[in-house]
Amino acid sequence: PTVILRGVQVFQGLLNRAAQEAMVREIRDIVAAAPLFSPMTPYGKPMTVRMTSAGRFGWVSDRSGYRYVEHHPNGQAWPPIPSSVQAVWDAVSGSAHAPECCLVNLYRDTAKMGLHQDRDEADFAHPVVSVSLGDDGLFRIGGTTRGGPTESIWLKSGDVLVMGGDARLAYHGIDKTRAGSSTVLDGGGRLNLTLRVVT
Ligand code: MD3
Ligand code: FE
Fold it and tell me: Closest ligand 1 atom, CA of 116?
């Protein structure tokens, strides 16, 4: 990694421009088959980030809570995880287990994601891998309890993060994105892919 921030390994610029563009095209195909939606939080407010998934499981949220399910809200199975995305997992995760979910997050305009822990997965021993594409995003990470000190870093298109060990249960979020900072996504915005073992 080029930087380690509170246990998160940051591989800056791991994907070159051509690899980023190829991945964006694969994500476009995923979105065509499994349209983006704004998940409804359990307390009734839609998230500002739009989401969809690839893989055996996708992440959904509605009035009955957050969970992984085998179908898109439209009733169809999620599309497969693209091989280019699987290859990033193979290169950096250090895990022999295949990822079961590729969550696709799209940030446009003032979309953000508040500080949270990722704890809907069965086994926190598996790392989470994230790929940033498009506009810069201000990533914030703290410790494993709410309210402690945090550190921030701007994530750029082509950066890859690995959250393992103690960092796996760290509070984290995206405070804002920098509109117009990248030309990788037509129409602008920031795409984030997170790969997870779910079961
Ligand atoms: C640190 N996504 O989808 S990716 C999420 O950029 C999520 O869309 C953000 O948080 C995004 O849940 C941040 C980096 C990330 C992902 C998972 C983590 C950091 C993490 C899990 C544990 C600790
Ligand atoms: Fe998260």
Answer: 10
Range of the domain at 130: 3-196
Does the model's ipTM exceed the 0.95 cut? Answer: yes
Ligand 1 in contact with 126 (CB < 6 A)? no
Instruction: State pLDDT tens for residues 127-167.
Output: 999 999 999 999 999 999 999 999 999 999 999 999 999 99
DSSP state of 76: S
Q: Would the CB of 105 count as within 6 Å of ligand 1?
A: yes
- The tally of domains found in the chain comes to 1
Write the DSSP string, 136-194: EEEEEE--SSTTS--EEEEE-TT-EEEE-GGGGG--EEEEEEETTS-SSSTT--EEEEE
**Cα–ligand 1 centroid distance for 159 (angstroms):** 13
Backbone angles phi, psi at 74, to 5 degrees: -80, 0
CATH number for the domain harbouring residue 80: 2.60.120.590
Best of 5, 89, 102, 118 to mutate for ligand 1, by most ligand atoms within 8 A of CB? 118
